Amino acid sequence: MTRNERIHALGYCRSCLNETYGLKLKQEDVLVYEFLGQCMKCGNTRHIVHRVKKYKIWKLMSSRKLGNEC
Ligand SMILES: [Zn+2]
Question: What is the top-level taxon of the source organism (predicted)?
Fold first, then answer.
């Protein structure tokens, strides 16, 4: 599983991704679902991230934790 597939599977909002995996994803770095959904982490109704933009994937490489779970 690639890191981006992992992001997709998680169903987290951006702030939970950043917090959980020590990332620094900005709003423009990610693609979110068109409709609001429930974050699997915080349970809030948020824009759920389904992938990180291709040229921003390097930002995921800095997260060892995310890498270990792949
Ligand atoms: Zn969340």
Answer: Bacteria
